[in-house]
Amino acid sequence: MPEPDAPKSFTLSPEVHEYMVAHGTPPDALQRELIEETRTLGGISMMQVAPEQGAFLTLFTRLLGVKRAVEVGTFTGYSALCIARGLPEDGRLLCCDVSEEWTAIGKRYWEKAGVAERIELVIAPALETLRALP
Predict the structure, then answer these.
(1) What pTM value is reported for the model?
(2) Which candidate, 89, 87, 109, 101, places its Cα nearest to that of 31?
(3) Is residue 8 within 8 Å of 53, Cβ to Cβ?
């Protein structure tokens, strides 16, 4: 299994990745806890976005003033946590996933982070959920 801090983007050189990690926003204690819990799932844990990608999601969401967002594929909720943290208090994130088992992990962390009220999780194929949107 690759190292947890290895670049997840095949287009970044090791030097650029190292620079991003050294100068970016590191994950906080709650995020590190979620990363570690996800890691216990084994090789499938590679589906989780990298911490620097999560920091970018928070920053990007906040900078653009996003009020509504959709995530297709939530897994254990790390990226949803990051997006929700970038939303204003009245912002909403719709998460589409088919696994109650994996998303249950995320829901616990969303509660701990105080962002659960911003997240609507729908357990169903994303295509069905998206087609039902206005």
Answers:
(1) 0.89
(2) 109
(3) yes
